[in-house]
Amino acid sequence: MAEIVRPFNIMAKPVCGVCNLDCSYCYYTMKPQRLYPEVSDPSQFRMSDAVLEAYTRQYLEAMPARAEFGWQGGEPTLAGLDFFKRAVELQKQYRRDGQVVTNALQTNGTLLDEAWCDFLSEEEFLVGISVDGPPQWHDHYRRDHAGRPTFHRAWAGLERLRDRSVAFNVLVTLNAANAPHGGDIYRYFVNRGVRYLQFIPILERASDGSPAPFSCTGEQFGRFMLDVFAVWVSRDVGRVSERLIDSVLHSLIHGKAAMCCHAPRCANAHVLEWNGDLYACDHFVYPEWKIGNITERPLVELVCDATLDAFAAMKTQLPAACRDCEFVAYCHGGCPKHHRPIGTDPDRVNHFCEGYKMFFREALPELKRLAEYFRRSEMPPQRAGHVPPPAGGADAGFETGPGAAAPQPTRPPTKVGRNDPCPCGSARKFKNCCGRKA
């Protein structure tokens, strides 16, 4: 019997960092040349059937209860539809009776035609689609190699997903262009029927180590999330899921983080490159953090390699500033990529620390109130004094999209059944989310 290891995630990169877009802030499109300079033709960066088969078999063996296949790039759809049909075929071949197998695809959405969306619907993929807001902010940094804007192509992909009832969420990178517009961006998506959102702040470094000009500041991150929270708590509790809000609720209810960046230890979310190379983390795909290759060593050995203990130290050895912080239980120092300097220096700080503190200080009291209702399997009443934004106010110019739900009225607590959708908005059943015993 294969060795059973603690659960881990893998983000597979079937085309390395090759992409049809040329986003200014992307940290991955330089990986092909830097990691594999001997490969001169970008078309060669495609996972072979042998590597795909080895990965599928080994991952399903290592995760006998639940195996979650994650696909990213670059732009993973450049691997071709036949590649993903083969991936699903191999999953069905090697899965065990009773084993839960899922697929998630992160894409820029511009290549999602009818054939793609039919496949994603039929095979029940969860799709993350990258859109940075309405065109004036999305197109600021997200352009193609000819310098052309990409918003309308991405949104067309989103609409095709919706037309075929494909489960999707929108990933918004927070950068210097869109970070000052939290409330507007949140309402833009929700008023158009988007119910699952991830806001991820960007920090990349210039050659001297300073934040690149397009990076989001800590203060911008905090103000953005507070603007989002103010709208969410006034009208969207139970109908919209946002990543940071969900993470804090999860910590309050279960006593542990839902995301690696907010956990006491990371080193369990790895990257598998096109040729079978396994790296510690998506943000640390560098030669020093290469664990090995699955065609040379079994995956169950690689995920137990001592290199990962050294990598985890960047998380487990908290910065001195975090150790006595009143909010450390909710972020545990944040992602090691955001530390300045990166490493284990006790004097390092998280670039977004100010923003986290702003958010926790303002939002935690209300999130704690909501968590108490969720623990009792109840839908919380709307907080007194919070009303939906008036028409023509801060949302002026962003018309309500088709199918947008009306703001929730004040309501008494309602009992939530175990198989009902969780009122936090996560899209999971209550018994598998906030209703789960800690």
The protein's oligomeric status is single chain
Strand content: 5-15%
Number of strands: 14
The main pleated sheet reads as: 10 strands, mixed
Broad shape:
globular
User: How big is the Rg?
Assistant: 21 Å
Distance between the termini: 30 Å
The percentage helix is 25-40%
Number of separate helices: 14
In the sheet with the most strands, the strands line up as 7-6-5-4-3-2-1-8-9-10
Please provide the ordered H/E string of secondary-structure elements. EHHEHEHEHHEHEHEHEEEHHHHEEHEE
Q: Outline the low-pLDDT stretches.
A: 386-412
Which class do the helix and strand fractions yield? alpha/beta
Give the overall pLDDT as a whole number: 90
Structural notes for this entry:
The chain has 438 residues and is an alpha/beta fold. It has helices at residues 31-35, 49-62, 81-94, 114-122, 135-141, 151-163, 182-190, 218-235, 243-254, 299-302, 306-316, 320-323, 328-331, 353-375; strands at residues 9-12, 66-71, 100-107, 126-130, 168-174, 196-201, 241-242, 269-272, 277-279, 290-293, 339-340, 349-350, 378-379, 414-415. The strands form three sheets. Strands 7-6-5-4-3-2-1-8-9-10 form a ten-stranded mixed beta sheet. The chain has a two-stranded antiparallel sheet with strand order 11-12. Helix 7 links the parallel strand 5 and strand 6. Helix 2 (49-62) runs parallel beside helix 3 (81-94), helix 7 (182-190) packs across helix 8 and helix 8 packs parallel to helix 14. Mean pLDDT is 90; it is low at 386-412.
